Amino acid sequence: MELKRRYNCSALLIEDSPISLGLIQSLREQSINVTTSKPDTDKRARLIAQTDLFAGGSVRLPRRAGWLEEFVAELLSFPGRHDDQVDALTQGLAWGRQHWGRTVIVTFVPF
Question: Which residues contact 95 (CB under 8 A, 6 or more apart)?
Fold first, then answer.
């Protein structure tokens, strides 16, 4: 929530799943605007649908960040045991395309 406020994010996107229902409800009770998404394909298909953004240079990562090495390792080992960050990224990219068109450029900030 601190990062949402700091960067004045217009949307807090959370996957609508049985695991996240409590979080979504809690945030809404606090009057926090939550946008939910319910993917209709598996994680692999969701990543494949966004590969043109990576290939076209529309996804930008910082040169240095404390989280970068782990994140890139997860990207390169996808699909793998730990792939939640990659899945969150691909769902965010898909949401961005729906709302902002095909010229999405994503710049990551450290968490």
Answer: 11, 13, 35, 37
Q: How many CB atoms lie within 10 A of CB 88?
A: 13
CA distance 17 to 1: 20
Q: Count of residues for the chain?
A: 111
Contact 95, 11 (CB under 8 A): yes
Per-residue pLDDT reduced to its tens digit, 58-111: 888 888 888 889 888 988 888 878 888 888 889 888 888 888 775 555 555 554
Name the token pair of 69: 């090495």
Unique residue bearing structure tokens 């939640």: 84
Q: Using an 8 Å Cβ cutoff, are 32 and 13 in contact?
A: no
- The answer to whether 103 and 58 are in contact (CB under 8 A) is yes
Task: Dig out the tokens for 20 from the structure.
Answer: 């996240």
